[in-house]
Amino acid sequence: MIKIQSIFPRGSNVTKTVKPFLAALHGETQARPPIWLMRQAGRYLEEYREVRKNVSGFLELCYTPELACEVTLQPIRRFGFDAAIMFSDILVLPDALGQEVTFVEGEGPKLAPIRNGSDLSKLSADWIHQRLEPVYEAITLMKQRLPDQTALIGFAGAPWTVATYMIEGGSSKDFANTKAWAFQNPNSFQDLINLVADATADYLCAQVDQGVEAVQLFDSWAGVLPEDAFARWVIEPTKRIVDRFKQRHPDIPFIGFPRGAGINYPAYVEATGVTAVGLDTTVPTKWAAETLQKKLPVQGNLDPQVLLAGGDMLDQSVGRILENLQDGPFIFNLGHGIIKETPVSHVERLMNLVRGRV
Ligand SMILES: Cc1c2[nH]c(c1CCC(=O)O)Cc1[nH]c(c(CCC(=O)O)c1C)Cc1[nH]c(c(CCC(=O)O)c1C)Cc1[nH]c(c(C)c1CCC(=O)O)C2
């Protein structure tokens, strides 16, 4: 636990301030929760689209430190969120492991799929830090340029979720190839999960060495597995990463986001040792307050479709989330990434609601 002396308002000339986002992760309950949004840098912002149209591919944007820094700062300038998430993607890791990754306009990610142990043997974690050097450089720039009160978040994908993209070769509806491998050849699938898990832990540690102040592990497809498989392919690899990370950085907060985990949320929290947990859109907030937030800080969980809709529905949904979760350690967020059609005015309304300006 860090000692919080007091949290001073923006513009205060008192030098010793604690960033509200980090205070929440250290267990503080605040009068107004800090806020950031998943995918807060992206296509719903015209200034992002402007930068994006001048690069040939999405990965080029991720690997050009000046540009990655610029798009990270854009939503901070516009809305004043309490945290910036470094601009990158969960699929830079398979790229750094030696798998071919491209992003096709309008179609999403495309990877040369790996399907078995022999494909797997062509990947290696030996060069990930060299390959990911531009990400580390970008973090240095972000740290220099972010406002003092804004925290910087690093991230990676969780092994199960990253494995689905590596095996399916892109986004998927049923994860048939991934499940076939995991259920028919669990030992060889375990080799893939371990490779990704250890590389991920080292990658997250390196992000901290460059200056990120908290990390988030995105397990976007945690919710598609039966219980034994959830324990083996979601909980165990996450615990492996948390353990390895905490050995090197015991004081850096680690947020787990097992999207769709449902009734498995308590087991995930208990068994993995994450510092805080991200709630997806479907988690009832009253239940989360009683079951999860008594043990650790929670983050979430406005439905991105509600933010897109705006109006009374937005006001009411934000009101209910605040009512149920703001009496404990809490970070306001969406339950999944912001949708690209979302009007900027709805995000401004959300900021005013959460900051108590309306
Ligand atoms: C599964 C996943 C991916 N990437 C990510 C996840 C986990 C969270 C989730 O479930 O959404 C995480 C991610 N992707 C991106 C960030 C950047 C930081 C931020 O949150 O602002 C983060 C944290 C940028 C991005 N990653 C991507 C974009 C859009 C690409 C573009 O600008 O052309 C951005 C801004 C592309 C991407 N990247 C991925 C997909 C499936 C796609 C295509 C879908 C789409 O286009 O929205 C993989």
UniProtKB/TrEMBL annotation:
GO cellular component term of the entry, any: cytosol
InterPro entries assigned: UROD/MetE-like_sf (IPR038071), Uroporphyrinogen_deCO2ase_HemE (IPR006361), Uroporphyrinogen_deCOase (IPR000257)
UniProt keywords, alphabetically: Cytoplasm, Decarboxylase, Lyase, Porphyrin biosynthesis
SUPFAM superfamilies: UROD/MetE-like
PROSITE patterns per record: UROD_1, UROD_2
Job of this protein: Catalyzes the decarboxylation of four acetate groups of uroporphyrinogen-III to yield coproporphyrinogen-III.
Protein's name in the database: Uroporphyrinogen decarboxylase
Organism: Aestuariispira insulae
